[in-house]
Amino acid sequence: MCQTLSHSLQKHLLFLKFLFKEFDFLDSLQARLNFAKAYNLEFVMPSFTQKKMILENFSHPILKDPKPLNLKFEKSMLAVTGVNAGGKTMLLKSLLSAAFLSKHLIPMKINAHHSVIPYFKEIHAIINDPQNSANNISTFAGRMKQFSALLSKENMLLGVDEIELGTDADEASSLYKTLLEKLLKQNNQIIITTHHKRLSVLMAENQEVELLAALYDEEKERPTYTFLKGVVGKSYAFETALRYGVPRFLIEKAKAFYGEDKEKLNVLIENSSALERELKQKNERLENALKEQEELKNAWLLETEKQKEIFHNKKLELEKSYQQALNALKSEVASKDTSSMHKEIHKASEILNKHKNSHETPQITTSFQANEKARYKNESVLIAQILDKGYYLIETELGMRLKVHGSLLKKIQKPPKNKFKPPKTIIPKPKEASLRLDLRGQRSEEALDLLDAFLNNALLGGFEEVLICHGKGSGILEKFVKEFLKNHPKVASFSDAPINLGGSGVKIVKL
């Protein structure tokens, strides 16, 4: 049975190998996903376009209670200096492990949305002491052997811990500067930890190198496990030795041997670090203030847009109210119901006044006394009566009485000595005034007499717009009406009425 089955599958061997390979790949992906879900981890896909490495809230997987690392490695080389046991080596290992985990699609504890990890063709670490007595290899010789094997590599991430280990510090600084610059030219990224201030200063001249210092809390006499960019850190060897049990009198004796000048250099380095920290704190406060101002600006813009929308809706409401008032007026005019026409006009006026634009610039109103002389449209008038809401009843020299607002009246600076007396001849206000005149069926002479009387009554009644129906017919009556209106001094304009009000057979006259 098994031989028969094996024989039948023999011709599909290559396809079966492909299936097994793909199944293993899918199985490994599912295993990674289950592992990430079980431990609340995240994936970071390596970037093939970004060169900088940004880690936010990254924790090394081997640490039980780690302090999350936040770091931006934006140049080609990172030189880490500073206090002993301050986390320099763990920082180096964290960067290497993050790159390794990302390259092999292994989940990690990190804020993946704000982190960027480049793709590296190879990842190498020079951390352990390569000394080998059996093979007659010293620490420095072992380091040189490791470096020589990497000098031809490209697109590599290299981490070197305690780079100056095993030889004279001054000679090592010059040698390692040359080796590191050779590797940087080959598109590699390098992380080193060192206590060589000379090497750090030499490498700082390169624009592709950034410095990072491990910080030390002098009050608590212990490392803070935090880092500061742009400075060379002090090693705090004496403080570390004291913390780990070396007697203080031995520490003081060592400081005396160390020399006053070098101690001053350390003080200068520490003062520089303190100044850098202070500037960093001020920068953070300024960034927070700018962020707050930006939020206020955005809130102001939102409120402005909201007010614009409210204004637009109010404008539409006013236009709708105006159209309702106009339609009501036209409806009453078309129905020829003169008894209710004035009521509808008053109603329309109330609607328009109710929705009057609140942003309109207020007119400067001057107060007047009864029987006081004023000027209205270049005419001398008399204040006959004081009405409510800033209105006055004025009397013209022709004896006509009009209701006008005080903003339309002007004071007369030098009134004449003789008191103004109204003429004895007073034109009485018409008892019945109409907004519509129908001239259809009238002869031309009679029609013009009626039209003249109609306009006089309309003017005395205070109407601003009237309708004159002359009909269509042969057009003779329309011609006489047009000629009369053109020559009338109180007619501002006239035009054909809308279709629903009679079209070309009716004229709308504005007085």
Automatic annotation (TrEMBL):
The protein's UniProt keywords, in alphabetical order, are:
ATP-binding, Coiled coil, DNA-binding, Endonuclease, Hydrolase, Nuclease, Nucleotide-binding, RNA-binding, rRNA-binding
What positions belong to coiled-coil segments? 265-303
Q: Which GO terms describe its biological process?
A: mismatch repair; negative regulation of DNA recombination
Molecular function per GO = ATP binding; ATP hydrolysis activity; ATP-dependent DNA damage sensor activity; endonuclease activity; mismatched DNA binding; rRNA binding
Answer yes or no on keyword Calcium.
no
Q: Which InterPro entries match?
A: DNA_mismatch_repair_MutS_C, MutS, MutS2, P-loop_NTPase, Smr_dom, Smr_dom_sf
Q: Which residues form the Smr domain?
A: 437-511
Record-given protein name: MutS2 family protein
The scientific name of the source species is: Helicobacter pylori SouthAfrica20
